[in-house]
Specification:
The complex is a heterodimer of chains A (684) and B (337). Chain A is an alpha/beta fold and 684 residues long. Chain A is built from 24 helices and 24 strands. In chain A, the strands form four sheets. Chain A has an eight-stranded mixed sheet with strand order 6-7-8-3-9-10-12-11, sandwiched between helices. In chain A, strands 18-19-20-15-21-22-24-23 form an eight-stranded mixed sheet, with helices on both faces. Chain B is an all-alpha fold and 337 residues long. In chain B, 76% of the residues lie in helices and 0% in strands. Chain B contains 14 helices and no strands. In chain B, α5 runs antiparallel to α11, α8 packs across α9 and α9 packs across α11. The N and C termini of chain B lie close together (8 Å). Classes of the chains: A alpha/beta (684), B mainly alpha (337). At the A-B interface, α2 of A face α1, α10 and α11 of B.
């Protein structure tokens, strides 16, 4: 809570621009905020809103062509923006520490953990090497690294992502700084590990009194830790307030849009379509002169042609919006506005939309996939990694089945098996009545038309040297669907209409599109051949909340219109709950629980499902306080050597002796809900 | 680690064998008859003499037997007898190799001592004068033909300015030291003959610079690229955020990572210097392996070609092995556990 005392950090009208050849990119353009000692401040906003540039400006970590062209960063009475190189170096890591997003690349791969921790301390002359070493071990222990005195001598590659982020936190806190800036510290981690790291961060803030600036695009993460939240849009702060108020009663239309675009894990959706805002954030080279959100704002009034200031709208709250400053309210969203496609009102074919739940379009039984592990030595015995280890799954025509689980649990491998991009080691795959388990590529070719895949990274999966027209016409010609070039061109236009892209896109190249638009292109490519079954592997994970919502809406629309069946893979449980009819939970290559989405979330019967759900944060501090959290111990064991009996037992809070001896079979424990646990439903 | 070393060793030996086999086969399929070159046109027209010659050198045996013989003798250190010099090839090689070894090693040290710091500086001071100088140096080094460089260097520094001595390893008036290693710098130093030492060193300057030019250019360029890559990595930003000084970041964080590609290149470059000094040795009348190989090739001297090839292959494989080992030492990810 803000106190009367002098703030620790006072940022005033900060402007950090990239002075590029094509004119200044005004990444951070007039940002002001305070951080008080011991406070936790959250910063949210979509990609490119200037969060990271702002954080790096405080640490003065930006290189040419970035320059702080205006404003001040007062920290303990000094203006960091104007310190010389040596003086700012003494602040970095000593007074203000920073933890970055990707723990996999943040540690130097050729140096031991010990050395990297020790030099952080000795660089500021506060510790001798010996003292720093024993402190490094203590810190690692405090961060929850097992047998720290031994592991401190490891190299980074011997650590998992979660462990590395613990090392980064140890490094951050090693000089007892008064402020820690964490830029998306958990974005690259699984929800279970994210929950552990956030817990740790909360405890450190409480015990050591270190102020924290937590940058995240996830409102749930912010809601759980922060005492105050800043919302950034187009290089400015557009709203500020306590999370309890800001997240339940937003006073800026952009915050309002963010909240409504994100599906909630704690609520049953009335409608699968989410509220989205159209358009893209403005170009940082030329901000609009009025309100920077005006082009996308559903509440805009005439006055919005003038640029609003960040002004108080209630006690302890400020917003940069003419409407709410004048006391106006942001009403509840109208459902009618929903719809991902850009105004394509094709009639809904109602007959296709009715799920025909009796016919499985895909039937998988006893499916296995082993990968040989690369040998480290010439004479070594060949070892195998059982990525998918006996999976039974049915997908019925017209439904959406979700696959969830931590990274490395075999989700993507399973997706690639059923689409036969991988060759199964054992088991059976029946697609539309045909056994395709070992079918040759030529034999699958006719079925490929009915079965398509969408990938996570829309950029990597589109050939950068082909125009959109060529990309979309390719499968049409390959499958002999379009007879001639004219027919192909007509079909390409239809596809672009379908996914809500302008027809002129045909002559453009993938790099000319945003991430969300590229994902629309990959969806169009998948739909080109008229499939009825689509496997989507993390189709929205790389996208901002609002774009995520647009893509979800598009997929829901297309499903209704064309009677599609989806196998939907995602690590975001809220999204999965929102879009799926049934959900399968995977752990180390095996299904732990499978059942209807509604009952699985309302009453998870497997301890793993229960802990997964409890680890996902809800963007509402009041709800969050009432939820019972089941902490998940440790990290998933190696798939090379899964535990005996129940493979979840090493992390299960209710494991008993029998769990190590007998592997629980996947049995029906509630209507339509099958669970692989000796004690289904015991952990509530 | 031990398992890693052993398995790399096994692979290395297999590679040497494979290399000798390939060379053996190639040498036997290229046109050119050793009988013709060795005996001359006159004698070669006498079938009896030809048959006797073939039998003496084992040229009448089936190919695989010839190869097998070659391998057997190889194991016993017998590399055969040169057809043209009529001396054991091993003796020839012992005579010629030190000159090349000395030249190549000095050239290699030179290119590392200059190329590495130049590359690092060019990366750290990107787009400044030093970067432009580094770019010019590597461009000239890599693209200028060796024989051209060699002639120009001789013409200017010996012919015009007379700053450097002429071709050869020593002045005609210098007494060569007693042979211990065959490396003049070491032999003279061991015998305390500093006058000859200086003479030998002076003679090395031009040819080693000429020989080093291409390697130096490559090492500068590779170091610069690897440093730029390393400096753009997240861990460098983290190191900066820790409050480390700039020099510490460059030397302690970026350089160890940038060394990885440089070591690979350096190893290959050294092997190349050893094997590929033909031009330089010719222009500078350097009595080294390069000239020996060249002569053997022209005279289709099979035993000599085979021996030199086997040695060159062995050098390449050995250097590769050393590169692998230093890689394992530099990069902990190479050998897991
Ligand atoms: N090196 C650069 N040169 C030019 N513009 C840049 C550069 N780095 C960032 N920008 C621009 O600065 C703006 C803010 O970027 P920033 O990284 O702060 O966004 P962010 O809010 O952290 O986004 P994300 O959620 O993706 O991390 C963006 O418009 C971006 O394109
Ligand atoms: S000022 Fe106007 S355009 Fe801007 S957010 Fe408020 S209502 Fe929307
Ligand atoms: S079988 Fe045992 S260890 Fe496995 S999930 Fe159930 S209770 Fe936990
Ligand atoms: Mg960022």
């Amino acid at each position: 809570m803000p106190t009367a005392a002098e703030p620790l950090l006072q940022v005033r009208d900060l402007r950090t621009w990239f002075l590029t050849d094509s004119g200044p990119v005004r990444a951070v353009d007039g940002v002001s905020f305070d951080v008080h000692a011991g406070e936790t401040l959250g910063v949210v906003g979509e990609s490119g809103s200037g969060k990271s540039v702002c954080a790096k400006s405080i640490m003065r970590l930006l290189d040419e062509p970035a320059r702080i062209v205006g404003g001040s960063i007062l920290f303990k009475g000094r203006d960091l923006a104007h310190l010389d190189d040596e003086a700012i170096r003494e602040v970095r890591g000593r007074e203000i520490a920073m933890v970055f997003q990707d723990p996999m690349t943040s540690l130097n791969p050729v140096l031991r953990i010990a050395r990297q921790l020790i030099e952080a301390m000795t660089a500021h002359g506060r510790f001798t090497v010996a003292a720093a070493r024993s402190r490094a071990i203590d810190l690692l222990r405090r961060m929850g690294v097992a047998s720290a005195d031994r592991t401190v001598n490891s190299f980074p590659h011997q650590f998992s992502g979660g462990m590395r982020q613990r090392v980064m936190l140890a490094m951050g806190f090693s000089n007892e700084p008064s402020l820690l800036i964490a830029d998306e510290p958990t974005t690259a981690l699984d929800v279970t590990i994210q929950a552990q790291i956030l817990d740790l961060l909360r405890g450190l803030n409480r015990d050591l009194g270190t102020a924290v600036i937590l940058i995240s695009h996830d409102l749930g993460v912010i809601a759980n830790i922060c005492q105050r939240v800043l919302v950034m849009y187009a290089g400015e702060v557009v709203e500020e307030g306590a999370p309890e108020e800001l997240l339940t009663d937003p006073r800026h239309p952009y915050t309002w849009a963010l909240l409504h675009a994100a599906p909630r894990i704690d609520a049953e959706a009335e409608d699968r379509r989410l509220i989205t805002i159209e358009g893209q954030p403005p170009d940082p080279r030329a901000w609009p002169s009025g309100c920077r959100f005006r082009a996308r704002c559903p509440f805009a009034i005439e006055k919005c042609a003038e640029h609003p200031e960040l002004l108080p709208v209630a006690a302890g709250r400020a917003a940069r919006c003419w409407v709410t400053q004048a006391g106006g309210a942001l009403h509840s969203p109208e459902r009618a506005r929903a719809g991902g496609g850009a105004g394509v009102a094709a009639p809904v074919d109602s007959s296709a939309a009715v799920p025909m739940l009796e016919v499985p379009i895909l039937e998988v039984s006893g499916l296995h996939k082993n990968f040989p592990v690369p040998k480290e030595a010439f004479f070594e015995r060949q070892r195998v990694l059982r990525a998918v280890d006996g999976v039974d799954l049915q997908v019925f025509a017209g439904e959406t089945v979700g696959l969830v689980g931590e990274s490395g649990c075999g989700k993507s491998t399973l997706a690639r098996l059923v689409t036969r991009l991988h060759e199964p080691t054992d088991g059976k795959i029946i697609f539309a009545g045909t056994d395709i388990t070992h079918a040759s590529q030529a034999a699958i070719r006719p079925l490929r038309r009915r079965m398509q895949m969408i990938f996570q990274d829309p950029y990597a999966s589109l050939n950068p040297r082909m125009t959109i027209g060529e990309i979309l016409a390719g499968p049409l010609i390959l499958h002999g669907i379009a007879g001639d070039a004219a027919a192909a061109a007509t079909r390409v236009d239809e596809l672009l209409d379908l996914v809500g892209l302008p027809r002129q896109s045909v002559r453009r190249f993938p790099h000319e599109f945003s991430g969300g638009q590229r994902q629309r292109i990959s969806i169009a490519r998948a739909l080109a051949v008229g499939p009825d079954f689509v496997v989507a592997d993390e189709p929205i994970s790389a996208l901002d909340v609002n774009i995520q919502a647009q893509i979800i809406n598009l997929m829901v629309d297309l499903q209704e219109r064309m009677g599609l069946t989806y196998l939907f893979i995602a690590h975001d449980l809220a999204v999965v709950r929102h879009v799926c009819d049934r959900i399968a939970v995977l752990y180390l290559g095996k299904i732990m629980e499978v059942g209807p989405a509604a009952s699985l979330f309302a009453r998870p019967l497997h301890p793993y499902t229960r802990t997964l759900i409890s680890a996902a944060p809800v963007p509402d501090p009041r709800v969050e306080r009432t939820r019972r959290h089941v902490p998940m111990k440790g990290e998933p064991p190696s798939a090379l050597n899964p535990p005996s009996g129940c493979r979840f037992r090493t992390r299960c809070p209710i494991a008993e002796e029998v769990c190590a001896l007998q592997e629980p079979p996947l049995l029906e424990a509630a209507p339509g809900q099958r669970v692989a646990c000796h004690f289904p439903g015991r952990l509530s | 680690m031990i398992r890693y070393v052993v398995s790399r060793l096994v692979v290395s030996v297999a590679m040497v064998l494979l290399a000798t086999l390939v060379i053996f086969l190639i040498a036997n399929t290229v046109p050119g008859d050793p009988v013709l070159t060795a005996l001359g046109d006159m004698a070669a027209s006498d079938p009896a003499q030809v048959a006797e010659f073939r039998a003496r050198w084992g040229l009448d045996l089936p190919l695989w037997q010839q190869y097998w013989l070659f391998l057997q003798r190889l194991v016993h250190g017998d590399l055969g007898v040169s057809i043209s010099s009529r001396r054991p090839v091993l003796q020839d090689i012992i005579d010629y190799a030190p000159a090349t070894l000395e030249l190549a090693t000095v050239a290699f040290i030179l290119s590392i001592l200059v190329g590495l710091p130049l590359g690092v500086l060019a990366a750290v001071r990107r787009d400044t004068v030093i970067d432009h100088i580094a770019r010019a140096v590597s461009l000239v080094g890599v693209s200028a033909p060796t024989f051209w460089l060699a002639f120009i260097a001789l013409a200017i520094f010996y012919g015009q300015l007379n700053w450097a001595p002429g071709p050869g390893r020593l002045d005609a008036v210098s007494f060569p030291p007693d042979r211990i290693t065959g490396l003049l710098l070491i032999d003279t130093a061991l015998q305390g003959d500093w006058e000859t030492f200086h003479d030998a060193a002076a003679h090395l300057v031009l040819p080693s610079f000429v020989l080093a030019a291409a390697t130096l250019g490559l090492i500068t360029r590779t170091t610069r690229a690897a440093m730029l890559e390393a400096l753009s990595q997240d861990y460098v930003r983290v190191a900066k955020a820790k409050g480390l000084r700039g020099r510490r970041i460059v030397v302690g964080h970026a350089l160890p990572n940038a060394m990885l590609p440089v070591v690979t290149l350096g190893g290959l470059a050294y092997a190349n210097l050893l094997a590929g000094a033909v031009m330089t040795e010719t222009v500078f009348s350097w009595p080294g392996l390069g000239r020996y190989t060249f002569r053997s090739a022209v005279t289709v001297d099979f035993p000599a070609i085979m021996a030199v090839t086997a040695i060159v292959a062995a050098i390449f494989v050995l250097v590769n092995f050393l590169v692998d080992m230093s890689y394992a030492l530099l990069d902990p990810r190479v050998v897991k556990k």
